[in-house]
Amino acid sequence: MNVVLGTDHDQVTDLRMAYVQDGQVYHGAHFSYPAGAPSRVHHRVDLATGRYTLECDVMRRDGTQQHVTRGLSVPVEGQLRLQIAP
Fold this sequence. Notes:
By secondary structure, the protein is mainly beta. It is built from no helices and 7 strands. The chain has a single domain, classed as Immunoglobulin-like, CATH 2.60.40. It has a 4-stranded antiparallel β-sheet with strand order 3-2-5-6, with no helix packed on it. It has a 3-stranded mixed β-sheet with strand order 4-1-7, with no helix packed on it. A hairpin with a 2-residue loop joins strand 2 (12-21) and strand 3.
């Protein structure tokens, strides 16, 4: 999984990800960047076959938070890319 944070990536201080299926979180990750995040965050996860909802919370230095939700079908061929901001 490649999470693309966009041009203001250096303002991102935290990224939380949850892989949800039938209302239950099966895997999650938290990345903390006190000095600012890189433009891309690489994350590897192994999930059982099925349909998931990927929920991401992006927290910025100014206190704002962005919530992004995407559908995900496993297995995925190759790398998955999630664009958070343009």
